[in-house]
Amino acid sequence: MPVAAPPPLPDQKTKGWEFTDLTGLEIDAYAPAEGEVEGLDTASESLDGPVVMSLAAAAEQFPEIVEPRLGSLVPADDPFVARNTDAWTQGAFIYVPKGKSLDPVQLAVRQLGDRSGLNWRVLIVLEEGAEAEVWETYTSADEQLEGLFNGVVEIVVGAGATLRYISRQELSDRSWVFGTQRAEVDRDGTLDWVALGFGSAHGKVRMETRLAGAGSSARVTGAYAGNGTQHLDFDTTQEHAAPNTTSDLAFRGVLTDSATAVWRGMIRVDPGAQQTDAFQESRNLLLSKKSHADAIPGLEIEANDVRCTHAAAVAQVDAEQLYYLRSRGLGDAEAKGMIIDGFLQELVERLAEGPIRDTVSEALETRLAELLA
Fold first, then answer.
1. 12-32: per-residue pLDDT in tens?
2. For 228-285, what is each residue's pLDDT tens digit?
C-alpha cells in the first residue's frame, strides 16, 4: 500500500509560522541517516520493572504498550510529524510500571552525517504512581555539520505519577531543527519540564502540555540563547482539560549579534475545566541593536472560574544597572555579564535544589560565556 505524501511545508502565511521563514529548506535533499545514541539498554525481559530501550525493539517486544500510545498524542497531520512517522528508525522507549521509580536516565543523540536528516522518536510512559527523571541531549558530531533534526516526543504521565523531563538542544549552528513534543498528565500527576535551546540555525520547536486529569499540574521552564544569525522559535501550549489543574510556564531568552527569536504561548482552558490556575511569561534580553525577539502570549478560556495570567517583555541591558556596577569598580564586560547572569539565574531559581538545578545553571553559564566571548 503506497505511503501518502506528507503535507506541504508551511510558509509565512500559515498560522503559527508568520515569524519563521523556511525559504531555502530543501527538506528532501537531506538523506535519512541514523545517529549515535547513548543511554539505551539493549533489551528488557519484561515490563515488571522500569524499561529503557530502543523504541523499535520495544514496538516488537511490547506491542501491547507501544502500539496504543505511539502516535496517540502527536498525530501525523503536520508535515514534519508526518515525515517522522514515515521515516523514523531510531528512538527511545521509557516505561515505568505502577508504583515503581526509575533512576535518572541520560540519553544523548548525536547527528553524524553532513547533509543528513535524522528522524528521532521518543515515547515515555509512566503508569499510576510511578516516578522518573529523563534527560535528553541533541548534538552534532561537528560544529560545521549541516543537517536536519526532526524529533517527536510523546509523554504519558499516569495518575499520581511524577516526571522530570529535561531536553537540551545543542546542534550545530548550520542545522535545521524541528520538534513536536506533547505531554498528557492524568489525575494528580505532576510534570516538571525543562527545555534548553542553544544550537541550530533555523527551525521550530512545539511544546504542548495537556492536563487531562483533575488535580494534575505542570511546570515548564525554558531558556534559549542565540548569536550570529540564529533564529530560535518556540511554540508552547498549556491545555487545561480537567478541573483543579495548575500550569506554570516561564521562558527566558538572550540574543546577541543578528540573532532572532520568537516565543508564542497559549493557555487553553476547555469547557468544564473550572478552578484552573495558569501562568505564562516570556522575557527576552537583547545584547545588540541587530538582535530581535517577538513574545506573543495568548489565552483561550471556555470556563468561568479560572485564574489565568501572562506576561511578556523584550528589553536591552539596563543602562542604570550598568552605571551602578561600573561605579562600584566593575569593568564594562564584567558588569554586563553579571546583569545577564542574574537575568538567567532567576529562571534557575524555579527549579528545586539538586542535580537538575546545578546542571541547568552550569549550562546557562557556559552558553553565556560563548555569547560574550
1. 999 999 999 999 999 999 999
2. 999 999 999 999 999 999 999 999 999 999 999 999 999 999 999 999 999 999 999 9
| Cα(373)–Cα(368) distance, integer angstroms | 9
Residues 6+ apart with CB under 8 A from 13: none
d(CA 186, CA 270): 15
Our measurement of the distance from residue 221's CA atom to the centroid of its chain's CA atoms, rounded to an integer in Å, reads: 9
Tell me which residue of 257, 245, 238, 181 sits closest to 217, measured CA to CA. 245
Cell of 124: 515515555
- Distance between CA atoms of residues 200 and 169, nearest Å: 8
Encode burial over 285-317: b for 16+ CB neighbours within 10 A, e otherwise: bbbeeebbbbbebeeebebeebebebebebeee
pTM: 0.95
Q: C-alpha angle with apex 197: 203 to 178, nearest 5 degrees? A: 25
DSSP string, 183-238: EEE-TT-EEEEEEEE---SEEEEEEEEEE-STT-EEEEEEEEEE-TT-EEEEEEEE
Concatenated DSSP letters for 82-149?
HHHHHH--EEEEEEE-TT-B---EEEEEEE-STTEEEEEEEEEEE-TT-EEEEEEEEEESSTT--EEE
The single residue listed with the C-alpha cell 528512538 is: 91
Give the angle 76-264-136 at the CA atoms, nearest 5°.
60
Counting Cβ atoms within 10 Å, is residue 274 exposed (0-12), middle (13-18) or buried (19+)? middle
